[in-house]
Structures are given as C-alpha cells and as structure tokens.
C-alpha cells in the first residue's frame, strides 16, 4: 500500500514538472516573439513661459508685461501664431524665429483705465502647440481705483485737492504730494484702523537735498479721514518736527478690504 502511494505521488510530481517546463518554454517563446510599438514621433510644437501672471500697474507706470515663446524644433526659421481673447491687450499675432533660435520674448501692452481688473488668455494657435507644455497662459492686470479728496497740511500751512490711488491690501498712494514726481504711500490696517507711513523721500530742500517723511496715524471711519502725524526729516541729520497731515477721502469712498 505504501509503495502504491509513493508511485502515485511520483507521477503527480512528474506531471507538475512537465507542466512547469511547458509553461516556461511558452513564456520564453512569447517574450522572444513580442513586438514593441515604436515611440510616438516627437511633438514639434511651441509653448509659453511667463514668470509672473498677475500685475498691478500704478499711474505713470507702463502697462506692459513679457511672455516667452519657446519652440521644440529649432533647425529652420519659422513663425508661431498667438491668439488672445481680450481686445484691450495688444498681443503680437506672429512671433518669428530665425534658424536655430529656440526662444523669443514678446511684449504685451495695454492702456487700461483706473480701477480696471482684466484677464487675458494668450494662446499658441491650434495645430502649433506642444501638447506637454503650457499652450495657454492667463494673465490678470489691475489698475488702482482713483479718488479725489482734500489734503490738509500743517507743515505746508495749506490744503489742496489731492488724488489718491487705492493699491490694494490697505495701501494708498498720494501722487506728487509735496513735490512733483514724488509719491507718498500709507497703509491702513482695516481691523485696527491704524495707519503706518514708512520712511520715504517726500520733497527736495534747496540746501539739505532730499527730505523724507515717516509717521503713523488713525483712520476716522465716520468722517472718512486719514489722520496722520508725519515727521519731515533730513536723513542722518535731523528733523523739521512733527506735523498733523490729514487726507479727507471723498464721500463716495468705500475701501476694498
């Protein structure tokens, strides 16, 4: 009886060994005869590169930004077509490349009014885009809101009509406040109503040269007045003293918090 069992087990082992050998041969045969598909041909399109896609242009600042067009195939001269979806932006329609030229940087311009907030989608034309790169870039451009109020200066002993621009995040700019070409900025913390005026060039003295101002204050929400105490100083020398300098926002002013 034991010998019969041993012979039965031996037959099972033989059959299993034969089956394994057949499987190995079959697998080897399939591997040897497998045909790999060739890699897809390289895409020779172009794509866009932009270091910055959000801009705030203050008054007097040129409303322009740059984008870079890069192509994959640089052997021959050629051109890439650009499209855009906002007519307020001047986007070059054709970008020309010389032989062996890989990238070309182009300038996009605009002339937006005060208080604008515009998006523009700039794209590589269909059929020319490299599928694995950025073929469309969205750029946002803002220009600050403009208000006209009144500035009352204890330092100047006078008051006058004054433009103010809202730059965002509680920051405001008073252009040409004390001197042509010199703008004064201040920041209002809308939670505490505190005002900070960082040290900055304000006007030019005939003897001492550039005079700076710095100081602090508080926003009077009821009367819409930025009440500031500013020190007019000669850097590294001394100051002319502290002066109450107030800006009265117009009645229609509503801060963008």
Task: State the distance separating the first and last CA atoms.
Answer: 96 Å
- Helical fraction equals 10-25%
Instruction: Name the shape in a single word.
Output: elongated
- Gyration radius from CA atoms, angstroms: 36 Å
Supply the helix-strand structural class.
Answer: mainly beta
* Beta-strand content: over 45%
Q: How are the strands of the largest sheet arranged?
A: 10-11-12-13-14-15-16-17
Please outline the major beta sheet: 8 strands, antiparallel, barrel
Give the ordered list of helices and strands: HEEEEEEEEEEEEEEEEE
Poorly predicted tracts of residues = 1-10, 12-16, 18-34, 36-41
Number of helices: 1
Oligomer classification: single chain
**Total number of β-strand segments?**
17
How confident overall, as mean pLDDT?
Answer: 87
Summarize the structure.
The chain has one helix spanning 2-33, and strands at 46-49, 54-56, 64-71, 78-84, 89-90, 94-97, 103-110, 117-124, 136-142, 145-153, 158-168, 171-179, 182-188, 194-205, 209-220, 225-234, 238-248. With 257 residues, the chain is mostly beta strands.
